[in-house]
Amino acid sequence: MEKVTVNASVRYDILIDKGILDNAGKFIKEIKQKGKCAVITDDNVDKYYGERVMKSLKNAGIEAVKFVFPHGESSKNHSTLLNIYDFLADNGFTRSDYIAALGGGVVGDTAGYAAATYMRGIDFVQIPTTVVSQSDSSVGGKTAVDIRAGKNLVGAFHQPRLVICDTGTLSTLTPEFFADGMAEVIKHGMIKSAELFELLSTKDIKENLVDIMKRNVTIKGKVVENDEREKGERMLLNFGHTLGHALEKYYNFTGLTHGYAVAIGMSTFTHIAERIGMCKAGVAEKLDALLTKCGLPTTDPAPMDELFKISLGDKKHLSDTMNIVICSDIGKSEVVKMSVDEYEKFLKS
Fold this sequence. Notes:
By secondary structure, the protein is of the alpha/beta class. It has helices at residues 24-31, 43-59, 78-90, 105-117, 131-137, 175-192, 194-202, 209-226, 241-250, 258-275, 283-293, 304-311, 340-348; strands at 2-7, 11-17, 37-42, 64-69, 98-103, 123-128, 142-147, 150-157, 162-166, 317-318, 321-329, 332-339.
């Protein structure tokens, strides 16, 4: 089993291996000797792993209850959040109790935000079951729900106490959902690691999942340690997301998944950057080749005028400037501050 330690405001371990889900209770008991556990999951994940986790908690002597909500981005809202609060209160949860988020990014973000805000904050554990949640969203303490104005606009930084990544859970993902998560994996290679990018480009991805996830969470963990509250270096993790979030909102969060949108955002920004001399020649071609290998798109017909307007509502729009992430080469990235006019010119160049 691989272990990566994150030294943020809360120090915690990320455990990675195939087949460790049935030991979740044992791992949790080592860091939480007391308190009840609320397993928060969605109806898809519950069918595969809900009872396995509940059994593991029971075997470890942990009192646990389970809350299940409908899967999908449309559930990542205040209605679901209020239902979780009521569930916790109805079951007598106090500050000594905790949440285990079992599922993908929607579950982790929503359950994590519930943990950050219930009784002004209780502990939580991440048990991610998707590529994107194992490689990215379960690490770093970003929790949030969506509102009408945009994605992840209401949330909090709240670090988990433990992350348990069983790569075996990825075997139940559809090819499309597996591909969707690979966008964040490729992102980490683009912004920080030419070695990871090369591994993804030349090796069989599914045969190297433990190594790939370890590399990803190591990258993510180091960035979080250096910039937990996203004031500087952590902004690099937004590569592809400025345009990606705009695409998701343009399609009203239907039809184009987060990973697909981020893939298009990464490709589009890299092609533009290469065209205007901000990126080394040939990088966009290599990026597109890897995205294609992973079953991800590189273009979309949505009008750039509309995407520009929508992206101004993103969290990276600060007053009269935009912070966008550009990769000058594979494994090399920087945050570039542009005026709104410069950003519009960049998008339309």
